[in-house]
Amino acid sequence: MERRCKRLVCILLSFLVIAGVFTFSGAKTEPWSAYQKFIPNETPVVKRHLRGVWISTVANLDWPSVETRKIENPSERIRKTKEELVEIFDKAVEMNLNAVFLQVSPEGDAFYKSDIVPWSRYLTGTFGKDPGFDPLEFAIEEAHKRNLELHAWFNPYRVSTNTSAATISSLKIEKSVYKEHPDWIRTAMNRFVVDPGIPEARQWVIDRVMEVVKKYDVDGVHFDDYFYYEQYVGELKDQDTYNKYNKGQFSNIGDFRRNNTYLLVKELSQKIRATKPWVKFGISPSGVWGNKSDGHSDGSNTSASLTNYDKSFADTKKWVQEELIDYIAPQVYFTFANSRAPYGEIASWWSDVCRGKNVHLYIGQAFYKINDDSDQYFKGENAVPELTRQLKFNAVKPEIMGTVLFRFANFKDSGKQQAVNAVKNDLWLQKALIPPMPWKDGNAPDAPILGRLESLSNGVEISWTDNDPDTAYFAIYRFNAGEKMDITSDSSAYKLIATVRKNGNGVQKFVDYGVLDADSVYYVVTALDRLHNESEGLAISTNQSEYFPDVGMKYSWAVDAIDMLYEKGVVKGDESGMFNPGVNTKRADFTIMIVKALALKADFEDNFADVRKDAYYYDAVGVARALGIVKGDGKNFNPDANITREDMMVIVVNALKATGAKIDEADEQFLENYGDANSISGYARKSVAVLTKAGVVNGYDGKIHPKSLATRAEIAVVVSKLLTNIEYL
Questions:
Q1: Beta bridge partners of 256
Q2: From CA 657, how far away is CA 118, in angstroms rounded?
Q3: Distances from the Cα of 289 to the Cα of 158, 173, 307, angstroms
């Protein structure tokens, strides 16, 4: 009997394996396995990624501290408040962040000079009390000094965080919406809020935001997730509002509410874009728009209790689809293993929504939960690996353009230092530029010019010039001498050593303290506007012209030739002292260079019909014509036309013959190396062959480019070779 049972078990197991009930694979299935292609083993490096942090002012969570707020001496309180913010920004730079989201209106109040709402109580402890300085103005100045974007974060509807008698008393002041518009005030979640369904209240929110947009140099306007915020649907008690303002448009109060938040976002978006089109408008809703399990066929495979559509009455997906906002930063405050709202599912859902839209997707990250949450993957030895997976996912998933960490004070928590170090020393070790928004403006500023290097005792000073009013800051890349220049790929982030805010027009400077030998490196400096469109690069090295500041590394192949010709008096700069190496050369100007370089002289009486006697090139062209160096069409010379490479070569050979120089004749076999030899004009073929054989002229890219216009740098190289390689009688 025992043997028979064993046989039956074996047969059953075999059947189950064949049927696929049991899968025996070597790989362990983890909650993130489905997303493994976006979670590489190596830390991904990306050149473009917004890296931000929320700075909460409500209840003095991040800034200023409660201790500082309580300082009675005004000057000491101001000093300490400023000092704390500088420390925050310095820490952001240390962690290679590039944006901060500063809460400037947490309770219908202001961290700025407002004509609409009172000063925040979190500055001094009292609503309406002047703190003695403008915190937002100071914050913008210090953030921009460190080249951090600053987004002004508003809570649009909240008026207080509690409904105590003391709070009620404190709100009965000038400019308080609680006092001036008591009919707008509702209660939800034990908080006073403004009813979003009242049109005048919506306009009050818009006016508050636009006051900041107009008066302050903010980079963005930011809303959090508090729209309709209730313990249970209907707690706000806005049925009367629905009855008054619906006017038969919507059959239920839910759609009415969603339209109210839609109108706020749409109207504010239009105002911002009309006033300052470069200012970004973004919103950070809770992570889940809607659950499929709640009947939303286009929702996510989640079962979240708090959703945008059904609980906050905010159709955040619609805002993206209609491109009303410039970015959305859903708060995906969950792990990959969360059973009700998995990180991978939510982030992927938002990626699908934002794909192809003029809306950036940033992911809000629950940094505050590390070692402070019931989810085992946010705790202990699992915490840093989970954070690592999430940040890698954000960097690799194509639609995700950035990450925002909640919140700053958590960077100082003792239980989160391993996570802080993982971000600083690994995940965000390299700097990153913020992705541009071409739908707002896709035009890059002009590239910097006139680069210089100077060795100091403790580093290398780089200087350059920029006069483009659209330039906001510069990116500085450092390469080893001889290393290929790359400033466009993701791997170029390895070379990005700094971003520097523009300091007025004219000369800009940066000291690289990481290098002592200037000859061992070269730098590339690019200009970026405030929307992070990047110009072409200016390469700067020690291989610069001694005489012309615009002849630098880009023309390193011509530096020695240009300097030699300057020393011989053959070339000179323009009225600004520039050589203009990339400028095409006129036929008359090239003739002057040849006559000067070879010291040609001849008596002449006649000249070409189109060469005026008062022209600066009259004598040089006359000499060249008399010696048979230039022939034109017999009557006209066309002096102001740009010279082609083949005409340049014909004139050079004719000039050499006129001097009696020893010239090795060359047949056309020397042209066979050029892929475009057939495009050389018949009258020029022998001259091209002669100069090719002599090594005076070389092609590039396997071609001679005979019809291309010759630049001043190219001509300088040809003339210098002429003077050093040709033997004279």
A1: none
A2: 87
A3: 21, 38, 5
| pTM beyond 0.70, yes or no | yes
- Secondary structure class of 586 (helix, strand, coil): strand
Pairing mode of beta strands 99-105, 220-223: unpaired
DSSP 352-407: HHHTTSS-EEEEEE-GGGTTSSSSGGGSHHHHHHHHHHHHHHHHHSTTEEEEEES-
Which residues, other chains included, contact 448 with Cβ-Cβ below 8 Å and sequence gap of 6+?
A: 464, 465, 466, 474, 508, 525, 526, 527, 535, 538
The angle formed by the CA atoms of residues 311, 312 and 313, to the nearest 5 degrees, is 90
Helix (H) or strand (E) holding 673: none
Max CA-CA distance within the chain? Answer: 130
387 and 422 in contact (C-beta within 8 Å)?
Answer: yes
- Residue 145 and residue 138 in contact, taking contact as beta carbons nearer than 8 Å: no
Dist. CA 568–CA 719, nearest whole Å? 12
State whether residue 335 is helix, strand or coil.
coil
Please write the tens of the pLDDT for every residue from 214-264. 999 999 999 999 999 999 999 999 999 999 999 999 999 999 999 999 999
Predicted confidence (pLDDT) per residue in 141-191, tens digit: 999 999 999 999 999 999 999 999 999 999 999 999 999 999 999 999 999
Non-local CB neighbours of 29 within 8 Å, separated by 6+ positions = none
Pairing of strands 506-512, 360-365: unpaired
Closest residue by Cα to residue 60 from 74, 46, 80, 33? 80
Cis preceding linkage at 407, omega within 30: yes
Could you give the 3-state DSSP secondary structure of residue 525?
strand
Q: Which amino acid is at 697?
A: V
Residue 178 to residue 172: CA distance in whole angstroms: 7
Span 354-394, pLDDT tens digits: 999 999 999 999 999 999 999 999 999 999 999 999 999 99
How far apart, in whole angstroms, are the C-alpha atoms of residue 151 and residue 282?
9
